[in-house]
Amino acid sequence: MRLSAAHLGALPESVARPRYDHETRGIGIVHFGIGAFHRAHMAAYTDNAMAADQGDWRILGVSLRSPAVRDQMRLQDGLYTLVERSAAGSKARIIGTIADVLVASEERERLIATLAAPTTHIASFTITEKGYCRAPDGSLDLALADDRSAYAYLAEAFARRQEAGLSGLTLLSCDNLAGNGAQLERLMTECLSARAPDLVDWFRTECACPSTMVDRIVPATTDEDRQQIEALIGMRDEAAVVTEPFSQWVIEDKFAGPRPYWEAHGAQITSAVHAYEAAKLRMLNGAHSALAYLGLQRGHEFVHQAIADPELASLIDRLMRDEAAPSLTPASGQDLNAYADALIDRFKNPALSHRLIQIAMDGSQKIPQRWLEMLAFHQKQGRQCPAILTALAAWLRHVRGDNGPVDDPLAATLKAKWHDAGLDGIVTALFDSKGPMASDWSPSDADRDLIVSVLN
Ligand code: CS2
Q: What pLDDT sits at residue 450?
């Protein structure tokens, strides 16, 4: 038996179902990047919000390229199981928020029409760092932002909304970028300035791009997970997602129109999002990337194994408490020491099987906001960051190919730099002001020596 609307009644009592009549609710959100993270995070917050109020907030999920999620979910009427796993056991619930999933290039007109519908108020995004199509200097790379990028569909929908005299949309970035809303606003403006300058003013006055801090650890679902879930719910679910019990969402209070009552699931709507976002990127994600590259180098496969390695645990402790925390300005009541403790506990969750190789992916897009901003901050104060520099050496080994094939949009460039520059030149070749990883951090001789000594 396959999970579907017709089979909801056959689920065991222990599996929670949507607490509202999901099929009667309309679409209010279009979400780009309908991967496991969205299904474990925003879709779950929205499911709770719809149980708490009467809103039409179902989500049209969009895959920019791969048909896999569409194929899994259409057969299940958009339903899927969300399993929270900890040492204490597993808890399963069925999420009813996803109305349908489409592949953008295959159903272009339907996507644009839904974005342009008067009932749609929000377009949200988990398109990963590379989905924003940024050049190394942070500006929009117009060649990457082609007519199959999220920007192109939005621009067409904006034209229709303006023409019809409709209100703007809230563009809600849920990706791990610093100031994700502000970046999206700037990049969207750059796209419109180049391609549809008549829409720039409309976009600026009618749309809003709140920044958000999103947090939930969501390993990629494996076949073994699917088998375990089949045993738990008594039917097959190809779209099931496994996650940890913890989740957090802090959203800047800046919307263009109505929104779901996400507070029902504990979302914080605040003006102080930046402090949470920076802490999460530098402490959680910064530590994650360090565990990934150093852990793989030391033969580990999962996050919980890497954090159990005393040498890595001590380095992560220093990275979070001595290097990340002093670079942050906490919001009132935000306790960074307690945050570090809580993160280490979450990393230790043995029930999660979070693969290091998953985190290692796309490092060139991740480490600027996770590590390089911190290096630049401390450099200005004349301080060095040995833990981050050690992790950076592990990343350099990774992109050299030491851990196997490299999954990164800059993989070929990084490999070519290694080939041309070698051990003594690689740091300068990548990180100086003309390199593909240029940032506000410019490696000092001492930084270079430390990295090369670790690499040797
Ligand atoms: C991870 C994140 O894969 C990665 O790069 O660091 O996906 C991390 O698990 C989430 O941001 C946690 O909220």
A: 97
Look up residue 130 and give its two tokens. Answer: 């590379």
Sign for the pseudo-dihedral over CA of 204, 131, 367, 248: positive
**CATH topology match: 5-270 vs 274-455:** no
H or E stretch covering 48: helix 42-52
Owner of token pair 């390695």: 309
Q: Which atom of ligand 1 is nearest to the CA of 41?
A: 13
Predicted model pTM: 0.97
Distance 117 CA to ligand 1 centre (A): 33
CATH no., domain 274-455: 1.10.1040.10
Burial, 381: exposed, middle or buried (Cβ in 10 Å; 0-12, 13-18, 19+)? exposed
Return phi, psi of residue 243, to 5°: -150, 180
Q: What is the pLDDT of residue 208?
A: 98
Q: What residue segments make up the domains of the chain, in order of their start?
A: 5-270, 274-455
Question: Cα 8 to chain center, whole Å?
Answer: 30
The Å distance, Cα 226 to ligand 1 centre, comes to 21
61 vs 63: CA distance, rounded Å: 7
pLDDT of residue 330: 95
Quote the CA–CA distance of 266 and 269 in Å, as a whole number. 9
Chain segment 348-378, per-residue pLDDT in tens = 999 999 999 999 999 999 999 999 999 999 9
Ranges under pLDDT 50 in the chain: none
**Ligand 1 centroid, distance to 162 Cα (angstroms):** 36
CA angle 434, 435, 437 (to 5 degrees): 125
Mutate which of 126, 249, 288 for ligand 1? The one with the most ligand atoms within 8 Å of its CB, which is: 288
Fold observed for domain 5-270: Rossmann fold (3.40.50)
- Provide the H-helix boundaries in 165-199: 180-195
